[in-house]
C-alpha cells in the first residue's frame, strides 16, 4: 500500500518538475542572446521616487513631473 502511494507521488513529482524544466528551456530559447531582458514589476519595485509637497495645498507630487494644483499661489 505504502509502496504504491510513494510510486504515485514520485511519478507526479517527475512529471511536474519535467514540465517546469521544459517550460524554462523554451523560454530561454525564445530569448535572444544579448537582448534586453523583459521588465518585471519586481525589478522596479525597489526604485524610490522623490516627492515634493505643494506649499499651497499640501499635496505630494513626483518631483520630475510636478504640476500646478490650480491655486494662484502654487509654486509649480
3D structure, described in words:
It is built from two helices and two strands; from the N terminus they run ααββ. It is elongated. It is 43% helix and 8% strand. It has helices at 2-30, 41-44; strands at 51-53, 60-62. The chain has 76 residues and is mainly alpha-helical. The longest helix has 29 residues, at 2-30.
- Our count of helices gives 2
Structural class: mainly alpha
Low-confidence segments: none
Mean of the pLDDT scores? 82
SSE pattern, N- to C-terminal: HHEE
Shape: elongated
Query: Into which percentage range does the β-strand content fall?
Result: 5-15%
Distance between the termini: 76 Å
Strand segment count: 2
Major β-sheet profile: 2 strands, antiparallel
Q: Widest sheet: strand order?
A: 1-2
Oligomer: single chain
Gyration radius over CA: 27 Å
Relative helix content: 40-55%
Short structural description:
With 76 residues, the protein is mainly alpha-helical.
List keywords for this structure.
single chain, mainly alpha, 2 strands, 43% helix, 8% strand, two-stranded antiparallel sheet, 76 residues, elongated
Secondary structure elements and their pairing?
Layout: H1 2-30, H2 41-44, E1 51-53, E2 60-62
Antiparallel strand pairs: 1-2
Amino acid at each position: 500500500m505504502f509502496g504504491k502511494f510513494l510510486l504515485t507521488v514520485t511519478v507526479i513529482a517527475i512529471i511536474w518538475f519535467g514540465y517546469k524544466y521544459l517550460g524554462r528551456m523554451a523560454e530561454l530559447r525564445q530569448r535572444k542572446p544579448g537582448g534586453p531582458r523583459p521588465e518585471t514589476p519586481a525589478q522596479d519595485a525597489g526604485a524610490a521616487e522623490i516627492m515634493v509637497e505643494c506649499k499651497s495645498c499640501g499635496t505630494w507630487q513626483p518631483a520630475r513631473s510636478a504640476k500646478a494644483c490650480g491655486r494662484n499661489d502654487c509654486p509649480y
